[in-house]
Design goal:
By secondary structure, the chain is mainly β. The protein has five helices and 65 strands.
Length: 771
């Protein structure tokens, strides 16, 4: 016989299987009517039932049951199909001979009040699980209501010093139980109770005791104990007492800006005080005010709530408003860090960005297009040139669409003409200017012997002047046609020069470096930094590209601080503020262009963007007028990783990539040029010109018909014979990081009439006649 019942309990699973086979109740196992004997084995209990009585949340004394058995041991389980109840436990307390003793325990906890029953089955038999006999024990629990304390809500109070608190009605604690005698142990002095003891169920109201309670945070766990049952319940309570708080007469401002908005609408006054109305002098609040936007200026910037309210004035900055594109803006100002003045600013004002073309010949009538935003018919009467209505100059305007106005101009005298819109706010709302110039001499072919890496050539038709962006010597080279030959003017030195573009005002050139942006006056040659510029010590090994499209802004790859990586930014020419031009979308390909190359179409309406580092090959063709992408994608679409050179025709229908691949507006690569050192496109997008370097530094120019797609991997057909370039152009620079192998340092551009092709080599610049 196995007498260790702990061992026998491990075979309970085997007994349970036999028990299921035997069925429920008194049969099975070959035993008698109650299943307690089968001749070979038997089992009996000292009692057939146990009864427990007690209250909730207390410990009820255990009771003992003795099993007398004939078999290899005793195991205890439940009836077949019955789930064990959580409040009933059985522990073996020992075995002596043919008797095993068990402790039966009940743990009521929060069991519902009433009578609860369960049945235990005691088993014996052979150790192999055969010849099983059993005897059942009924357990009854009579449970009465026990002591319990429950809060109806969280006791976390918020109060103002010597003022109101929330929740205003306090919090109720419900006491339940039969025959209770409860009391609150160590009640906090900063709480007041409707009762602190009692001998019946009921409700206690708890609320802060605000008498003399200073500002601060108070918290404590107190207990409610029942002396009858000995039970207790812990309660957490806290009170956050705040000092008087700042108050503002208004924090929200809705503003509409249009041509009729008066100047007075740019200023707002509000009263600053506190919840004590400034009478609690010891607790008066010192405050500071600051603007979170360049659109807002606040005065005064400091004050106190002691005494009468202070008038705070918020002014909208006119220079910033002058540049805002139409739309909704949400500038804010802050009072003492966490209090905000919020402005809903709705701008409905026209804005002029540029004129196309931006120059005309003096003494000759002309028609030009004013490119802008949010243009309506009523704006035509508001147009001014040099402060005068168009009628005063004999000019007229016709609205084409919300972004274009056609200007019909008389024969004007040579001058610079500023375009603006009249409004009650006195804002010009324009970055557009027209340059009227006397007829310039037609430039001719020639050589300009000079060394450098002219990565870009720029032709200025208003002065018959050529600019070379020489990144080797960090200077803007200037060359003038004097009627018979090209003469060299003094260069403009710009440290760490990377790129340059002509502004569409006929007066300025803008340049980018590895850290800064510059503006060069084309008449004086004086260069000054512009925009938000970084510490000049911030040096990046990658050249920073830029473009000046017809958006009244400059797109540039620049760094705003030494800790920032390079990023594409847009500098607004009206506000001189730089921002990212694209809003991040759900896919990073929609806006992420790591250190891109930039180029704009001849009319300035389209911007090409192509990344030059980090895998991905991000490319985009952006309409700067509609502010939407015409085309965009990454390497998985175009199978292009790096975009070191970009050139566009006048309207952006063709894009030349890396002097080699021609891509259309849909993103399709439609053909190639042969290997070359410099290339560009005609204004109408029908031809491509390529300089092909030859032995001894000489070479030739070939013209290609790119009108009809020939396939991404095929070369376009050549038009006409090669045009010899007999001068020694020098060796291309492929050693710098700016000129990776296969993409060199030669530049190329055309005269506006496309009669001259300029090629910038490392030893000279040549101007050749085109047939």
């Amino acid at each position: 016989m196995i007498e260790n019942t702990a061992v026998l309990r491990r075979i309970l699973g085997a007994f349970a299987i036999l028990l299921l086979l035997a069925g429920c109740g008194g049969g099975g196992g070959g035993g008698g009517g109650d299943g307690s004997s089968n001749g070979r084995h038997s089992i009996s209990l000292s009692t057939g039932s146990l009864s427990f009585s007690g209250v909730q949340y207390t410990t009820i004394p255990a009771q003992t049951v003795t099993a007398t058995f004939k078999g290899d041991g005793v195991a205890v389980g439940t009836l077949p199909g019955q789930v064990p109840v959580s409040w009933l436990q059985v522990l073996s307390t020992g075995t002596s001979g043919n008797q095993a003793t068990f402790s039966v325990q009940v743990t009521p906890g929060g069991l519902p009040v009433g009578t609860h029953t369960s049945t235990l089955r005691f088993l014996s038999g052979a150790a192999d699980g055969s010849s099983v006999v059993h005897r059942d024990l009924t357990v009854t629990l009579n449970l009465r209501e026990g002591f319990k304390a429950t809060a109806a809500a969280d006791m976390r109070f918020t109060a103002t010093e010597a003022g109101p608190y929330t929740p205003a009605d306090g919090v109720n604690i419900q006491i339940t139980g039969e025959n209770v005698a409860w009391s609150i142990e160590d009640p906090p002095a900063w709480l007041q109770f409707s009762a602190t003891s009692g001998n019946a169920r009921g409700s206690i109201n708890v609320r802060p005791n605000m008498t003399g309670l200073a500002a601060g945070y108070y918290q404590q766990i107190f207990r409610i104990r029942d002396s009858v049952s000995g039970g207790s319940w812990g309660m957490f309570a806290s009170v956050q007492v705040n000092e008087p708080q700042l108050t503002l007469s208004s924090t929200q401002f809705d503003i509409l800006l249009n041509a009729q908005t008066p100047l007075s609408a740019l200023q707002y006054n509000l009263a600053v005080s506190d919840t004590a109305l400034g009478q609690n002098i010891p607790k008066a609040i010192s405050w500071g005010a600051s603007s979170n936007s360049p659109l807002l200026t606040v005065t005064p910037t400091t004050g106190s709530t002691a005494g009468a309210p202070t008038t705070l004035t918020v002014d909208l900055d006119r220079d910033q408003l002058n540049a805002l594109r139409s739309g909704a803006y949400l500038p804010t100002a802050t009072i003492n860090t966490y209090t905000y003045l919020r402005f809903n600013l709705d701008v409905r004002l026209p804005r002029a960005n540029t004129i196309d073309p931006y120059f005309v010949t003096a003494g000759t009538p002309a028609t030009v297009t004013l490119l802008g935003e949010n243009l309506i018919q009523e704006d035509l009467a508001l147009l001014r040139m040099n402060g005068q209505p168009l009628s005063a100059l004999g000019a007229s305007a016709t609205l084409t669409n919300e972004r274009e106005i056609s200007l019909t101009l008389p024969a004007l005298a040579a001058n610079d003409y500023e375009v603006s819109f009249h409004n009650e706010l006195g804002l010009s709302r324009s970055a557009a200017a027209l340059k009227v110039v006397v007829a310039q001499p037609t430039p001719g072919a020639g050589d300009i012997v000079t060394t450098g890496n002219r990565v870009k050539l720029l032709f200025d038709p208003t002065r018959t002047r050529l600019y070379g962006v020489d990144v080797l010597h960090d200077e803007i080279e200037r060359y003038q046609w004097n009627g018979t030959q090209w003469v060299t003017l003094s260069s403009v030195s710009i440290p760490r020069l990377a790129d340059a573009a002509l502004l569409r005002d006929g007066r300025h050139l803008v340049a980018s470096t590895t850290a800064l942006l510059w503006k060069v006056d084309l008449d004086s040659g004086v260069a000054t930094t512009i925009g938000e510029t970084a510490d000049p010590s911030c040096i990046n090994t990658q050249a920073q590209s830029m473009a000046a499209p017809a958006a009244g802004s400059i797109f540039a790859v620049t760094r705003l601080s030494c800790s920032d990586g390079t990023d594409l930014q847009e500098l607004d020419l009206l506000s001189n503020v730089m921002n990212r031009p694209f809003t991040p979308g759900p896919a990073y390909v929609e806006w992420y262009f790591p250190t891109p190359t930039l180029a704009s179409s001849g009319d300035g309406r389209v911007l090409a963007i192509g990344s030059t580092r980090t895998s991905g090959g991000h490319y985009g063709l952006f309409d700067v007028i509609d502010r939407t992408f015409i085309d965009r994608g990454d390497w998985f679409r175009y199978r292009y990783y790096y975009y070191y050179r970009l050139a566009l025709d006048r309207t952006g229908t063709r894009v030349l990539i890396n002097n080699y691949t021609v891509r259309d507006r849909t993103g399709a690569d439609i053909g190639q040029l042969p290997a070359n050192e410099a290339a560009t496109l005609s204004a109408d997008g029908t031809r491509a010109y390529a300089y092909i370097h030859g032995a001894g530094g000489t070479g030739h120019v070939a013209t290609f018909d790119i009108t009809t797609p020939v396939g991404a991997l095929n070369v376009f057909p050549q038009v006409g014979a090669d045009i010899a370039v007999p001068s020694d152009m020098g060796a291309p620079d492929t050693t710098s990081l700016n000129f990776p192998t296969g993409y060199d340092s030669f530049g190329m551009t055309l005269s506006p009439d496309e009669q001259l092709l300029f090629i910038g080599g490392s030893a000279r610049i040549v101007a050749i006649d085109l047939p």
